[in-house]
Task: structure prediction
Amino acid sequence: MSEVKSTVHCKTVTTMETQSCCTAPPTCLAGSAFSDPIWTLWRDFSEARSHAQRHTHRQQAIESMMVEHIGFPVTHSPPFAVDAVNVAGLENAVVIRDEDQDQTRLDERQRASYQDQCARWSAADAELGYSAALRAEGRALCRVRELAEHLWATPAASLTGVMAKLDALLSEGAPSSEAQEFPWPQLRAIRADLEFLRQDQPRTPGR
Result:
């Protein structure tokens, strides 16, 4: 398991280094220290979001390694109907049972295999800190949402402040930076309009 632990650390560091290139402040906001109170809120939001992303990457790296080396604790006896089982930090472990019976029907071999897998998952969880990583990620994400709500509720005093609020909305809401579903392209276009206005640049018709 020590080899798994080392691999988790390496994967987490690599992912964090890659992600750091994608979460830098937008050019239109970076370094824009001004009197608008939105600036401080946006900066706190951005730092909290980067912090939450680090927790997410660590949790995902641990889960990936545990699934690769152990696998999710799953067993079944047809016909299929799924029940959730609580296994150390794992909400989606399942037992697939006979839907016509109230009691799960598993032969002794299946039961022993399942219990062994659960035990190995729980041991890996204790060593690698998967449950702790999930809790830390949850707390970090809650903090991001709290700061975002505070940011959106605070009146902006400048165009840059409006852009900061819009950036937070795109960061939190859009499934990706290039999402094409409504309203994300439209909101990105509005942000581009605001950037032109903020810099007092004339717009070329049709752009």
Remarks:
- The first strand starts at residue 74 and ends at 76.
- The CA atoms of residues 48 and 92 lie 28 Å apart.
- DSSP finds six helices and three strands in the chain.
